[in-house]
Amino acid sequence: MRPRIIAVSLAVVVAALLVGTLAGRAIGDEDEVKAAAALKKAVDEGNRLFRDAALGSGGKACAACHEDPERPKLALASRAGGYPKWDRREDAVITLGQKIRQMIEKNLKGTPPELGSVALVSLEAYIASLASAR
I need a surface site. Which of 1, 22, 51, 78 has the fewest CB within 10 A? Predict the structure, then answer.
């Protein structure tokens, strides 16, 4: 009688673990879909901002320099993955977000978005996507 109780108990535990794992996987899959959609939205918004001359005051967008075939050293696909890194202007190690803010303020003569803002995170997501697409 005792082995049967142990076998049934074991079967119940295994079934509970299996149901819990499947339920967790379904929730995880839903989260992955949600995360992918959110990232795509951020990348798309970053792409739009990257081409928007309104980021600066001189009528120039980020893309004007960073997509210029005459200036291949400015192509972001080969540069974006290197952050955080040392920056000579700041004489410090900075993040990609800080670099974007610096470029908007100094080169585009615009008001940079705040760190952590939707606009800045979207620009970071777009630029990071260029590096990962290589």
Answer: 1
Which of 20, 51, 35 has the alpha carbon at shortest distance from 126?
A: 51
- Express each pLDDT in 27-55 by its tens digit: 678 999 999 999 999 999 999 999 999 99
Residue 68 — left, alpha, or beta (φ > 0 → left; ψ -120 to 50 → alpha)? beta
How far apart CA 109 and CA 114 sit, in angstroms, is: 15
Sign of CA dihedral 103, 121, 40, 131: positive
CA distance 69 to 128: 20
CA distance 128 to 134: 10
Query: pLDDT exceeding 90 applies to what percent of the chain?
Result: 63
Tell me the domains of the chain and their CATH numbers. 2-132 (1.10.760.10)
